[in-house]
Structures are given as C-alpha cells and as structure tokens.
Design brief:
Length: about 280
C-alpha cells in the first residue's frame, strides 16, 4: 500500500492539472448598460444564459424596458458574439430574418443599416395598422456581445425618438478576461490539499467513519411558463414553444388583461403565461 501512495498522488495531480484548461475556458459576458429615457424603466430581466441564443450555444440574457406612459417596450437579448465578424450587411440580413420569422403576419416596410452608439447595426421595421404601432427588429454587436433587439412602440415621431435614444444609450463594458492567477493559484492549492489529505488517510488506515446523514435541502419551486398561443408548457430556458413555435414577441401592444391567477398578460394572449389557463376571446 505504501508503494501505491505516490502513484495515487501523481494520478490525482495529473487529473487536476488536466482540468485547468477547462477552468480557463470558463467565460462570462458583460450585461449591456442602458440609460432609458424619461418615464422608461427596467420592467424585467433574465440573466445570461437563461434565454435561447441565436449564435451562443449556452443561451442568452434578456433585458426588457417599458415606457410607463403608453406601454411601449424594448426587449434586448444579449449573448456572446460569434468568433467571425458580422458586417453591417450581415446584421441587416439577420434583422430582416428575425422580422420575417417573428412577425410573419405583418408586412416588412423597410430594412437597412444605421449607427447606434458608434457601432454599426442592422434593422427591419414594419407597421402594425391594427394598433397604429411599429414593430422594429435590430441586430447589434458591441465588445464581443451580440444583441438581438425587438421594439414595439406607437407610430409617432416622439415615441420613435425615445426608442432610438434608448438604443443609442446601450453600452457594453469591455471584457479584460479572467486573470490567470485567480484561477491557477486556487487550483494548485486545492491539488496540494487533496493530495496531502489522501496520503494521510491512506497511511493512517483508519476505520471507516459512520456515514453522516443529512437532510436534503428543499428544492426551490419550479418556474412554470406556458405558451400564450397554445397553452403548451415551456421549458426552463426555452423562449420558443416546442408545440406551435410562438414566442413572447408574437404578443405585444398597449392593451392588457388580467388572468384569474392575477397575472397581467397581453390582451391578444389565448392562454395565461403563468398558470396556462385558457383565456376568453376578446
């Protein structure tokens, strides 16, 4: 047994060192900073990567800002940008694709490129005649963060200026990366402690201690979400319904209604997003 102790210690150290590249590859992204116009506020937030991403396999984060006066809103999905460069033309194509995919019942009026906060962006816009509102899709890259933005606002110059002001205020802190020492030093210390503890335990050959029974911690309540089009249960990170393909972007507008469970939902929703109850037609 004594001859096997150095071998076991070396194997543990080798395995721990092999995990260093994995630890070094762990990254995060900076959440976009937004300075909303007067009467606008952060209505909700889903931290990265709890939403579905377009390029990032891990997912995306979501910031939703709303105008407290007339209920215009802007949804900012943010994720890691692809490793290749997205040109202005590619951003316009992506914005157009998003509009056609998410708002297929509306006509695309215009698309192109513009500059937001000093960065090139692509856009696609269509007019919703039923509610006299514009539906705007924008794609933008800032400091290796890709953003897919959806805005729904009254078709007035004042409201459009407020939305553009919000979009121009978006900034992303430049990531300096994780200092190597902050990762390597704790790993090396942990390897040394584990190796010493294992060697001491093997040499002492103590009798196995009685197992310690612990009471499992109660699990937090499951976050339930339902599709507002067909009532299908959505997955924890899913943004699109696996049954009908709808998303929250398909339901917008200033009008709302309240479900019997107390949740405020868009007036066009056929099912409650919180309890899944079918809604009476409006």
């Amino acid at each position: 047994m004594k001859n096997q102790i150095p071998i076991i210690g070396c194997v543990l150290i080798y395995l721990a060192i092999a995990l260093i590249p994995i630890a070094l590859s762990a990254e995060s992204i900076s959440k976009p900073n937004v300075s909303p116009p007067e009467n606008w506020y952060l209505e909700s937030e889903s931290p990265y990567p709890q939403e579905g991403g377009q390029y990032d396999p891990q997912g995306a984060g979501l910031l939703t800002y709303e105008d407290g006066v007339d209920y215009d809103f802007v949804m900012i999905f943010y994720e890691k940008a692809p490793t290749y460069t997205l040109t202005a033309a590619a951003l316009e194509t992506k914005a157009t694709t998003n509009f056609l995919n998410y708002h297929e019942e509306y006509t695309l009026d215009n698309s192109g490129t513009l500059t937001l906060g000093g960065s090139p962006a692509g856009y696609a816009i269509g007019y919703d005649s039923e509610s006299d509102c514009n539906r705007l899709e924008v794609t933008l890259v800032k400091n290796d963060v890709y953003m897919s933005i959806y805005a729904y606002y009254d078709a007035t110059t004042e409201d459009e200026d407020q939305v553009l002001a919000l979009l121009n205020s978006i900034s992303v802190k430049e990531s300096n990366g994780i200092p190597w020492l902050l990762i390597i030093v704790p790993i090396v210390v942990a390897i040394a402690v584990i190796a010493v503890v294992v060697i001491i335990l093997l040499r002492r050959r103590k009798k196995p201690a009685k197992p310690i029974t612990t009471t499992p911690k109660p699990q937090p309540p499951e976050d339930k979400r339902f599709c507002m089009e067909c009532g299908n249960r959505l997955s924890a990170k899913g943004f699109y319904c696996n049954n009908c393909g709808s998303s929250a972007r398909n339901f917008g507008g200033p009008k709302t209604k309240t479900c019997h469970c107390g949740t405020v939902i868009p007036a066009t929703a056929k099912f409650c997003s919180a309890c899944g109850a079918k809604q009476a037609p409006t």
